[in-house]
């Protein structure tokens, strides 16, 4: 259920529910200054055993009975209110992958920022798509629940006053593609104590918008998009899976890459596109073939598609005048084991420096050609066994998820008794693997260099909440300072999720101008669940709410803190 109403961008949101009459009077008074709207959504989140994306008695997490969940369709600077009713039998949080939550990590929806929504209760997120455009998605962030669904698309459209660097397409399609396992997510979660399952198991099938591949006996339906010959369509593609990167292609059709995770790219014509876990792209497809049906394919990287045929996602591009299903072999893509193809393509995805995005000034106004780096973190992942259980570590530290959100502790007791700031080694590897509540300082309004080293045998993805980062370099083997000479500092693309190839490194720059407690994690669900994450605390001592938003009025309390709002009256952040 959704409701829309217009508000001026300068209106404060404190007290909307308390003073609804004033709220709507203000809307009337300032209608002529409207430049954003309020979007009100009501979500009932529940396990549904009737949807059955494959022929298994398997509950999925549905939102208002939908799997995938409903589209959040917004415009730059809109305010989104999502009232989440948790009808599961365990706590729940949603995170908004790529939405930067400007000055407001209270709405980020991860374990380090929010108390969970308990079963049988509801809680309302309120966040703004401040200064953003692009393609994103949401998903449940705790308890391994993403493996059961609960994900859905987010569009942030341009304001009408901003020119878009391509003609308006005739229609848009959201395409959420991801690997899927047949087991109940709770069963899989319980098996994460087994090193073989934790480190070596792979999913069973690839779904497109929650539907199995065309022709696969496990499914009752397949995904299909109807197009009209001569028209142009925007496909917003997201990898919502848990484990596998994939290569995306459409039979007999080329694609024009135009956007990724809020950045307009240099427009490149592609036969296929690698999409890594947690990433989102927009491509334009022209229906310029004879009226027929054509295969849409997403095949896994670093796996033999013949041996794992169910992990090849297959949908259909259906021309409106077509009378037959697609025929012939699936369109071939690059060798799934050809890492160089993927790296070369990644390097070719560049920022469009001349177009505006959320603002009219060109994206290239903000560039990294001559920035001064104030911090460098070198983060290496690996697998280990700690106290008899398998874990994934970063610099030999596996993140220990605790009951008290770090942001809440930061607000009330400056983190005392909950975490030790900067105990995590950002440029070295501890001698022995151990647990830690990893929180590190990010210099406010400083440039940080993050170097991700992947010591595992599969493609990893790293994501940073709260920011877009500039992807400046990829390389093989160990990173060293001299390799900065290979960076692209002219037009690196800005995004929030980046892949790291096996045995290789990826380097990104980020400008830490967004105060808050921000999650830096692997997008691979097992890696994240097993400890591959940390938090960057970007702090501004100025209590001015224009610098960072205060806690919301509906703030939840949990962990070591009494569930009483009176705590906020007796504690403040120094």
Automatic annotation (TrEMBL):
The lineage of its organism: Eukaryota, Viridiplantae, Streptophyta, Embryophyta, Tracheophyta. Gene3D superfamilies: Cupredoxins - blue copper proteins (2.60.40.420). Belongs to the multicopper oxidase family. One of its GO terms (molecular function) is oxidoreductase activity. Keywords: Glycoprotein, Membrane, Transmembrane, Transmembrane helix. The chain crosses the membrane at residues 21-41. This is Monocopper oxidase-like protein SKU5 isoform X1. The keyword Transmembrane applies. Pfam families: Cu-oxidase, Cu-oxidase_2, Cu-oxidase_3. Residues 50-160, 175-322, 415-541 form the Plastocyanin-like domain. InterPro entries: Cu-oxidase-like_N (IPR011707), Cu-oxidase_2nd (IPR001117), Cu-oxidase_C (IPR011706), Cu-oxidase_fam (IPR045087), Cupredoxin (IPR008972). The keyword DNA-binding does not apply. GO terms for cellular component: plasma membrane.
